[in-house]
Design a protein that fits this description.
The complex is a heterodimer of chains A (264) and B (381). Chain A has 264 residues and is mostly helical. Chain A has 2 domains: 3-55, no CATH class; 59-263, MetI-like fold. Helix content of chain A is 80%, strand content 0%. In chain A, helix 7 packs antiparallel against helix 8 (179-208). The radius of gyration of chain A is 24 Å and the shape is globular. Chain A starts with a helix and ends with a helix. In chain B, helix 4 packs across helix 5 (139-151). Chain B is elongated and about 75 Å long. The chains are: A mainly alpha (264), B alpha+beta (381). At the A-B interface, helix 7 and helix 8 of A face helix 2, strand 6 and helix 3 of B.
């Protein structure tokens, strides 16, 4: 190698380091700023804050507007995660352990919500729900959210079941287990951590969902993301920085829980 | 004396759509016998095993286990033990839980289960391992757990699907020895499936050779090696050379006169060859000697193509003009000095020659002799 080539490759290496650093800064600076601002006692959003304190958190806890939206989000997210898991799990078993016709097409259909343009789907849903008087109902939103939560179950449980060799079920049957017993005692048991992880992620997806609720939600159906959007219309309340911090911490914890569940 | 039949297959067939994986297999395995089904990949041997285990149902035919028809029973009802190539141990259960699984499913009380698990550990030397998980064991230890798990509930039949395939060579030889010992001690009827003829040769009481969904031949390893009844058995199981020949006269007592390389020679045959004009003469590599004989023998003029010292003997690959290749296993003093390209004279005593019909194997029409075909099969596997 010539001296010019060496200096070129060194320059490229520094460039790639710089790129990584910029990328990380771009991702994390807003997070740090939001957390920093949430501990300001100001009544308007300002940087840097004059005074630090827990004002935003206290205001959040005392506002029924915000606390009821959190409760609403929870009452949506839990049943949604449950439905997605209860529908997705047997589907995944059928995709991987039977000779179901059109298996691949159905499996792709299970992933389609990942690819679907959310707004377009929400408009269609709004029109359809109008026919059944389901706009603004909790059930309507739970069903809509279940659709976008389903792919998490299909992907995570699907990946787990593919790692369980079918021979394990066969050997269990040769040892005297019935087919259901082999399926539950071996295959289901071995995919249980993934099922739990999928439940957690489906829960997060529903808790965070901000598109559908804007279409099929209503005055009695205000989830946390909807409450944030609504409050932005009246100007930026610094309280949002507190909510954002709480959300990020909780999401971080549940994500770690999901990772830990999948590993065990 | 082995007289009672433990397992009997009657016209067993299995098709997957238009594909016939097994095309009518008849086979009897005696009580306490170690029978190996040997065949190349795609011969249908694994399908036969899965049919017997009950993982898939036959399209036609019957499976009789100790006189009762089990063809349509669930795997659990059949009471057959099975060992898989990749062990298929339950990863979330300890060694002891794995071994006890079959006992638990069959309703053995807990104290009896514990005693049995300890007995099985004794049998294969797995002391102090009962609390370990499968991933904490070596390949050989995992194989022992799989074997004891299949044997613990005292099955009437043990099926093994290439159980040594995933082990390295040295461990394979050691485990084969252990299998022989365990079979001797327990006397369980064993049906073993493999594509490795050495395993089949060293482990089995009898070998059933499978080819294209059918059993080609059944016999003791010695019978099949010394007097192969078909071309496929000669090349796949024996690894013998094949030379084209034609029938002159079918004699009595399994003897024939054939014309091979322009010479009239006598040969043995495993089946009556009357009516078969075109034959193969089977020439074991070990039977080929250097020199020219006056006693009844086949003389071969050849050119040395390659010599390979294999310790104890020299493998010489020769070209026979207009015929093909021949593998000769010569003694060190005869073979070591041979120059590549030199012309040599070889002979095979007629006692060592076996004739097989060429028509018996329509799927493999007459081609060059066996050596290259055996190589092809090895690649296929």
């Amino acid at each position: 190698m010539t001296a010019a080539q060496i200096s070129l490759s060194a320059a490229l290496r520094w460039l790639s380091y710089a790129f990584v650093v910029v990328l990380i800064l771009f991702l994390f600076v807003p997070v740090v700023v939001v957390v920093f601002l949430s501990f300001s006692n100001a009544t308007v959003l300002q940087f840097p804050p004059d005074e630090f304190g827990l004002r935003q958190y206290v205001a959040f806890a005392q506002s029924s507007y915000w606390t009821s939206s959190v409760v609403k989000s929870l009452t949506i997210a839990f049943p949604t995660a449950l439905i997605a898991t209860l529908v997705g799990m047997p589907a995944v078993f059928a995709f991987n352990r039977t000779r179901l016709p059109f298996r691949e097409g159905l499996e792709l259909a299970g992933l389609a919500p990942f690819l679907l343009p959310g707004v377009a789907y929400a408009i269609a849903l709004y029109a359809m729900y109008a026919q059944f008087h389901m706009n603004g109902t909790t059930l309507g939103l739970i069903l809509a959210d279940s659709v976008i939560a389903l792919p998490y179950v299909v992907v995570i449980v699907g990946a787990a079941i593919k790692r369980v060799p079918p021979d394990l079920e066969l050997v269990a049957m040769s040892l005297g287990a019935s087919r259901p017993r082999a399926l539950i005692g071996i295959t289901f048991r071995l995919t249980l951590p993934a099922i739990a992880a999928a439940f957690v992620l489906a829960f997060l997806a529903a808790f965070d969902e901000a598109t559908f609720v804007n279409f099929v939600g209503g005055p009695d159906l205000v989830t946390l993301p909807k409450a944030i959007f609504d409050s932005l219309r009246l100007g930026v309340d610094p309280l949002i920085t507190g909510i954002a911090t709480i959300l990020m911490v909780l999401t971080g914890i549940t994500m770690m829980l999901a990772v830990w569940l999948r590993r065990s | 004396m082995k007289t009672a039949i433990g397992l009997q297959l009657k016209g067993l067939a299995k098709s997957y759509g238009p594909v016939e994986a097994v095309r009518g297999v008849d086979l009897s395995v005696f009580e306490g016998e170690f029978l190996t089904v040997l065949g190349p990949s795609g011969s249908g041997k694994t399908t036969v095993l899965r049919l017997i285990a009950g993982f898939t149902l036959p399209t036609a035919g019957q499976i009789m286990l100790q006189g009762r028809d089990v063809s349509r029973m669930t795997p659990a009802e059949r009471g057959i033990g099975m060992v898989f190539q990749h062990y298929a141990l339950f990863p979330h259960m300890t060694v002891a839980e794995n071994i006890a699984y079959g006992l638990k499913m069959r309703g053995w009380p807990a104290p009896k289960r514990e005693t049995r698990v300890r007995e099985m550990q004794d049998l294969v030397g797995l002391h102090g391992m009962e609390k370990r998980l499968p991933r904490e064991l070596s390949g050989g230890q995992q194989q022992r757990v799989a074997l004891t798990r299949a044997l613990a509930f005292e099955p009437t039949l043990l099926l093994m699907d290439e159980p040594l395939g995933a082990l390295d060579r040295e461990l394979r030889i050691r485990m084969a020895g252990e299998l022989r010992r365990i079979h001797r001690e327990l006397g369980t009827t064993v049906m073993y499936v493999t594509h490795d003829r050495e395993e089949a040769m060293t482990l089995s009481d009898r070998v059933a050779i499978m080819h294209q969904g059918l059993i080609d031949a059944v016999g003791s390893p010695h019978e099949l090696f010394s007097v192969p009844p078909t071309r496929f058995v000669a090349s796949f199981f024996g690894g013998h050379n094949l030379l084209p020949a034609s029938l002159t006269t079918q004699g009595a007592n399994g003897h024939v006169r054939v014309r091979c390389l322009g010479q009239d020679v006598e040969a043995t045959c495993g089946t009556d060859l009357t009516g078969a004009r075109n034959l193969w003469v089977v020439v074991p590599a070990l039977a080929v000697k250097l020199g020219r004989g006056t006693s009844p023998s086949l003389n071969i003029d050849a050119t040395v193509a390659e010599t390979l010292y294999v310790g104890g003997s020299v493998q010489v690959t020769c070209d026979i003009a207009g015929t093909g290749r021949l593998l000769a296993n010569l003694s060190v003093e005869d073979g070591l000095g041979l120059e590549v390209g030199s012309r040599i004279e070889l002979l095979v005593r007629s006692d060592d020659l076996v004739a097989v019909a060429r028509e018996a194997d329509p799927a493999n029409p007459a081609a060059s002799p066996a050596i290259e075909e055996v190589d092809d099969l090895a690649k296929d596997i």
